[in-house]
Design brief:
Elements: H1 4-14, E1 24-27, E2 36-41, E3 46-52, H2 58-74, E4 85-90, E5 96-101, H3 114-130
Antiparallel strand pairs: 1-2, 2-3, 3-5, 4-5
Length: about 130
């Protein structure tokens, strides 16, 4: 089983973002996708790298495929603010990779002010109007 550094290098190679120098990275946790998720520094600012291996559990593979399809097919058609995808890869057997500009998750709703709720409501209304 590859370690994190090797896994990151393999993923970046699939995304045509190969690096020869030492990589600085942080393992990110807390997501529900089941993918390996990293904060990586590629010299152009922090990026989020999500990797799913073909040997992952079936539910992980299904979530990865849905996420990849969302960013490739649906995201360009909608007006929701989502992380900016820089690159994506799939081999059709379950190996998937996504590279995003790093983002800061929003504050929990119990810390929001009225403007936050209004903004979310406007985005949802825009999304529903599209479909």
């Amino acid at each position: 089983m590859p370690g994190h550094s090797q896994r990151i290098r393999q993923g970046l190679t699939l995304l045509r973002q190969a690096r020869d120098d030492d990589l600085e990275f942080e393992v990110l946790q807390g997501g529900v996708s089941g993918a390996y998720t990293y904060l990586v520094d590629l010299g152009t600012g922090p990026k989020v790298l999500k990797l799913t291996e073909a040997t992952s559990a079936p539910w992980v593979l299904q979530r990865a495929q849905r996420e990849l399809l969302f960013y490739r097919e649906l995201e360009p058609q909608i007006s929701l603010r989502v992380p900016q995808r820089l690159a994506s890869y799939t081999d059709g057997t379950g190996t998937n990779a996504l590279l995003f500009v790093a983002y800061r998750p929003p504050e929990p709703p119990d810390r929001w002010e009225k403007a936050h709720y209004r903004h979310v409501a406007q985005q949802l209304a825009s999304f529903h109007a599209h479909f």
